[in-house]
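Lab meeting notes turned into a lecture example. A postdoc, R.K., suggested we walk through two folding results consecutively so the class can see how the record format repeats. The first protein's sequence and structure tokens come next.
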Amino acid sequence: MSRRNRKNAPAAAPCTVTVCRGCCCGTPKIPGVDHAAQLAQLRGDLAGADGRIRVSDCVDACEHGNVIVVQPSAEGRAAGGRPVWLGLVNDPDATADIATWIRDGGPGLAEPPGVLDLYAFTPSRRVRQAVDA
């Protein structure tokens, strides 16, 4: 592909970040968290082509609220990356670590900061299928 064609080629799809903001996540049921600031922080940190943010009413993993699901980019999925479910994301440092990881490439392309292992969980197959759709 010539330099000219690459310049006009569409950008690769970025990671998709699903932020739960439903019945528990993002509500006073999880006290002491500035939920609006968390979402604004993610949007600001991932502005541009780093990640696409989508807000979900409920991902049905309330016991892990606040939940953030990071789905790999097309390139990350091709490299073997799979969606990563992160729960109890209730402080700005964890949100910043997630954004840094996504800017570095996200699932399949970059190792997450070790601290994110503390937040990772595996939801039921039914729940995973609903969000991955």
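The second example is placed directly after the first for contrast:
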Amino acid sequence: MRDQVNNRLEDESLNETIQYVTIYISEQLFGLPISRVHDVFVPESVTRVPLSQTEIAGVLNLRGRIVTAIDMRKRLGLAPHEHTGSMMAIGIEFKEESYGLIIDSVGEVLDLSEESREAVPSNLDQRWADVAAGVHRLESELMVILDVDRVLGDMVTNSVAA
């Protein structure tokens, strides 16, 4: 009986779905677990911070909170985006601080099975692999799961050490 219960629990955990907020950076689809996303917003203005790391676009005010804005294109070593309209940002928390990841665009929310998640492929661009927690192969494209801890971990650690 115990084995049947354990097998059923294992089956249920394999069938677990995770919701991802999808975003695009340089035409690459990324997914952020919805549990990590606090806001999707259009920054009104970003104030540059002198002597900050190049990835830091500056700071912004989001409902009375000071938020560090991270330019994801610079973070990934990509060419700047020619913003013809408003910037888009994803609000997240990391080590009790608020961050806004500046991205190209927001997609939709996808429910994906944990079972369909794959390891990072060895041929994935190293810039993507460095911030990936795995991938999901969708019908028409590959979605890279963005690992917020990896995206911000090195930056926060390096800025404290500097």
